[in-house]
Amino acid sequence: MSSLQARPADSIILTGLRVHANHGVFDFERAEGQEFVVDVTAWLDLSVASAGDDLAATVHYGELAEEVVAAVERDPVDLIETVAERVAETVLAHEPVDAVEVTVHKPQAPISVPFGDVAVRITRGRA
């Protein structure tokens, strides 16, 4: 059974993290930048933290949010797929996290037709 199938039912969820960054395949995206919106669900066992009211037994969601934003802001890449992978690696660097789902939205994507959202979603777990 993979770690994705066996993930705990407990999770920390961050939604709508807004980040201005310079990702994209077009020169104007790299020069001007644009807003990206990131959602993260980190699966981990929260029973020890909740039973002991112990922050050290969980992941500090405020610090995690700052780390996710920093991961999105750093060196520009072409694909939001790459941004999503970078965020997943950042979240999985926290030992209590067993699996993570990351969605990167690109609400100002350069698409020639009207649209509501463009997003990439990935799910990663510990090997």
UniProtKB/TrEMBL annotation:
Annotated pathway, please? Cofactor biosynthesis; tetrahydrofolate biosynthesis; 2-amino-4-hydroxy-6-hydroxymethyl-7,8-dihydropteridine diphosphate from 7,8-dihydroneopterin triphosphate: step 3/4
Where is the Dihydroneopterin aldolase/epimerase domain positioned along the sequence?
12-124
- An annotated GO BP: folic acid biosynthetic process
SUPFAM superfamilies from the entry?
Answer: Tetrahydrobiopterin biosynthesis enzymes-like
Which EC number(s) are documented for this chain? Answer: 4.1.2.25
Q: What class of enzyme is it?
A: lyase
Instruction: List UniProt keywords, sorted A-Z.
Output: Folate biosynthesis, Lyase
Listed under catalytic activity are: 7,8-dihydroneopterin = 6-hydroxymethyl-7,8-dihydropterin + glycolaldehyde
The reply to whether Lyase figures as a keyword in the UniProt entry is yes
InterPro entries (UniProt xref): Dihydroneopterin_aldolase, FolB_dom, GTP-CH-I_C/QueF
Q: Where is it found, in Gene Ontology cellular component terms?
A: cytoplasm
Question: What is one Pfam family matched by this protein?
Answer: FolB
Could you confirm whether the keyword Lyase appears in this record? yes
Which CDD domains does this entry report, sorted A to Z? DHNA_DHNTPE
The GO molecular function terms of this record are: dihydroneopterin aldolase activity
Q: What does this protein do?
A: Catalyzes the conversion of 7,8-dihydroneopterin to 6-hydroxymethyl-7,8-dihydropterin.
Q: Give the similarity note.
A: Belongs to the DHNA family.
The protein's name is 7,8-dihydroneopterin aldolase
Q: What species is given as this protein's source? A: Leifsonia soli
The record lists the lineage as:
Bacteria, Bacillati, Actinomycetota, Actinomycetes, Micrococcales
